Amino acid sequence: MTDYTHQQIVARGARADAEAAADAIDNMPGLEGATYSILEEDEDKGIWRIDAFPTTEDEDAALLELLGGYPLKVEREALADADWLAMALSGLPPVRAGRFFVYGMHDRGRLPASTVNLRIEAGAAFGTGHHGTTVGCLQAYDRLIKAKKFNKVLDVGAGTGLLAIAAARTGAKLAVGTDIDKPSVRISKENAKVNMANARFVHASGLSNKLVAQNAPYDLVFANILARPLISLAQDIKRALVPGGTVILSGLLRTQERMVKAAYLSRGFKVVNRIHRDAWATLVLQRP
């Protein structure tokens, strides 16, 4: 058996076709954990772009087959560096979201003085702040903490740990993050140390981990994952929140917003805010 040579797959086309393909990736068995992003590449020409980073031959083949079923121009190229995602993200510019300024090592010399500066290195994890879902979560959180402090925060699907670290750096006394991917947990811990943030991270699926359970209920829950897991975790997230607590949901396309929102409204949540960025939606809801 040979090692898989990591690829970057790029698919370009009209917005409707790109969004439909992204929705299909989210809902295809075997691609639940696929790393990809969708963004508007050329506003004047109406061109949208999907960047996918498969990690196995099976995932590579499945993505190529799926994307080939849409009227998109699909290209791929090998990424020789073993630290493939870090290489793909290394040249990205810093991101400003409300009071937060998210940057990588390559931008450490250009930090604003008036922002909460968060250095995030991706490694093999996802969530640098460039993706529309992560930016949406930061913007939503920034708006919330202008009026209220959240002492206990849980980040479900932490990725690089950015959201839990942001909470810890802005007054949360307890910030806990979980991820189903062990390398992501390691990277989150490293990022917390670099940012001198008192945030703890554990390898867990769902909210049943001992550390997560023993610190419940939380004032705020971030859940930046995928639409179907957001729906399936609705009741668990409700139980994990204090009455009147807040959840920030993202990782969902605008086309998936209605079904995700329905799962929470049926449990008594009310919508506080929503943010649309590119094809993505972020929902802020309050527990009854």
TrEMBL record:
S-adenosyl-L-methionine binds at residues 134, 157, 179, 224. GO terms for cellular component: cytoplasm; ribosome. CDD domains: AdoMet_MTases. GO terms for molecular function: protein methyltransferase activity. Its EC number is 2.1.1.-. InterPro entries: Ribosomal_L11_MeTrfase_PrmA (IPR050078), Ribosomal_PrmA_MeTrfase (IPR004498), SAM-dependent_MTases_sf (IPR029063). The keyword Transferase applies. Its main location: cytoplasm. It is found in: Cytoplasm. SUPFAM superfamilies: S-adenosyl-L-methionine-dependent methyltransferases. It catalyses: L-lysyl-[protein] + 3 S-adenosyl-L-methionine = N(6),N(6),N(6)-trimethyl-L-lysyl-[protein] + 3 S-adenosyl-L-homocysteine + 3 H(+). It is an enzyme of class 2 (transferase). Keywords: Cytoplasm, Methyltransferase, Ribonucleoprotein, Ribosomal protein, S-adenosyl-L-methionine, Transferase. It comes from the Bacteria. GO terms for biological process: methylation. Belongs to the methyltransferase superfamily. PrmA family. PANTHER family: ELECTRON TRANSFER FLAVOPROTEIN BETA SUBUNIT LYSINE METHYLTRANSFERASE. Methylates ribosomal protein L11. This is Ribosomal protein L11 methyltransferase. It comes from Caulobacter sp. 602-2.
